[in-house]
Design goal:
Length: about 475
């Protein structure tokens, strides 16, 4: 099959193509005819935001008739000569000598006509929405960030570990966890019968809420590891920053304390933001122009200046002293709500903020208990516009303290025998964190709703496509 040049390559290396025969393939964004017998086609092939302007002759002996049938949404091939454009708005244009129509789009039915569509509407046509500027740009940024995540860790000697998606351990889940079963709901179990006797794993099984515990196993063997994969939480919260299925990056490092963990998280975010600023410039300019006017400033601050680091106790003090009316009350020992997080990062510090040393009662059993015995070595990183994007901690490496924590939190030592054994055999201080890729995407693009930064969002009541 004929293969054209990618429009992104063409714009990057214009001088190499000017005056030469050039072939492109893509989808028509718009077409209009001029009185001078010329047709203008804006062609997009997804390789970049910008469309290539195609100049076609309405009376052309070969393609003149075909041209009449070409509509917005049609998939076409154009071969022609690339020329410097005399018109405003583009530097080059393609003078068509040959056009082929692969697939027509009926203008009476094609939903993406040239006008702005709401994000809500676009979600209902998730099979077509990547052909819009916003969703296309988000997909390209997401791709670049995913690659940068691997680059960052690989350069630092981390090993990529595939932690399981199906798991029988439910350490954080309680009520937020999806069950995995092959039992047929139409055939209920009988009283007294072991409900899992005929189930696939012969015991309760779930979709993972985090790969951390398994990553710890590998960190205590390979030193520095990370997992990066789908993560599932059945949170029944319809917010703009929660999905039922999202992608989490979870590094886990032996011989790292909380300070090292925080330093790594900061370097990580700085690197990802810098990559986006450098390599996704066109897409980010689009977001800054149409989605979030403060975007560029926020990203530059995140890339250049040191994050603010405060303790949970300090955060509570700041919130208590503020004149702000919060809908959730602030009190030491209570979780910080999204509104509190955003107030701290957007209003008080106006840059990313690390919060460390949370109340022991708020955090899971595996976080390392501090000397005050009231707090644990936990950290959250908050960014303007999104709030929390990273949650992490130093892990409890002392076997007696871990047992004590499990007892306090009602976690069965039998179920986590292997986790305890990691503390009995060559235990070391170690730390890690989890970054939600979609929260990072929200921060980097300024897109307000998390449903627009993942190709196919899963939320309560929604698993279409
Ligand atoms: P939140 O309080 O914002 O619901 P969390 O404290 O439950 O998040 P963690 O368990 O710390 O989240 O998970 C680590 C990271 O994973 C979070 O900082 C966030 O970036 C991301 N994350 C967690 N839950 C979700 C979700 N439902 N959808 C998208 N990303 C999520
Ligand atoms: Mn968290």
């Amino acid at each position: 099959m004929e293969k054209g040049v990618l429009i992104a390559d063409l714009f990057r290396n214009e001088h190499e193509y000017i005056g030469k025969k050039t072939l492109v393939q893509g989808w028509v964004r718009t077409k209009r005819d001029s009185k001078a017998g010329i047709g203008f086609i804006e062609l997009n092939d997804g390789s970049c935001l910008k469309n290539l302007q195609v100049i076609a002759e309405l009376e052309h002996p070969d393609y003149g008739e075909l041209l009449k049938r070409i509509t917005t949404g049609s998939a076409i091939l154009v071969e022609g000569t690339l020329s410097l454009s005399p018109g405003k708005g583009q530097s080059v244009e393609l003078r068509a000598e040959r056009i082929h129509l692969y697939g027509w789009a009926d203008p009476a039915l094609y939903p993406l006509q040239k006008k702005r569509h709401s994000f809500e509407y676009l979600r209902q046509i998730a099979h077509l929405r990547p052909r819009t500027n916003t969703i296309g740009a988000a997909a390209r940024v997401r791709n670049r960030l995913s690659y940068a995540i691997h680059q960052f860790f690989q350069d630092l000697g981390f090993h990529y570990i595939h932690t399981p998606i199906i798991t029988a351990s439910d350490c954080e889940g309680a009520g937020e966890i999806f069950r995995v079963t092959t039992l047929d709901p139409a055939h209920p179990v009988f009283e007294g019968e072991d409900p899992y006797r005929n189930d696939f794993f012969a015991k309760p099984a779930f979709l993972t809420v985090s790969g951390q515990l398994q990553a710890e196993i590998y960190a205590l063997a390979l030193g520095r590891v990370y997992s990066f994969g789908p993560t599932f939480r059945a949170e029944n919260s319809n917010t703009s920053r929660h999905l039922a299925e999202f992608w989490m990056v979870e590094p886990e490092m032996a011989f790292f304390d909380l300070k090292d963990d925080l330093d790594l998280a900061q370097a990580f975010i700085k690197k990802l933001v810098t990559v986006a600023l450098n390599d996704c410039r066109e897409d980010l300019e689009f977001f800054a122009r149409f989605i979030e006017p403060e975007l560029t400033g926020r990203l530059q601050t995140a890339a250049e200046s040191a994050f603010e680091v405060i303790s949970y106790t300090e955060a509570v003090d700041i919130l208590l002293k503020s004149a702000e009316q919060f809908s959730f009350p602030v009190e030491w020992g209570h979780d910080l709500q999204a509104e509190h997080e955003r107030y701290l990062t957007e209003r008080v510090f106006r840059k990313p903020v690390g919060i460390v040393n949370f109340p022991r009662s708020l955090k899971p059993f595996y976080m390392r208990v501090n000397d005050d015995e009231k707090t644990v070595a936990a950290m959250d990183i908050l960014v303007p516009g999104t709030g929390e994007i990273i949650g992490g901690s130093q892990r409890e490496e002392r076997p007696e303290m871990l047992l004590e924590q499990m007892r306090l939190k009602g976690i069965s030592a039998d179920d986590y025998k292997w986790y305890l054994e990691l503390r009995q055999f060559g235990s070391v201080p170690h730390s890690g964190f989890g970054l939600g890729l979609e929260r990072l995407m929200q921060f980097v693009t300024g897109i307000p709703n998390i449903r627009e930064v993942i190709p196919f969002p899963r939320t309560p009541g929604h698993a279409e496509f």
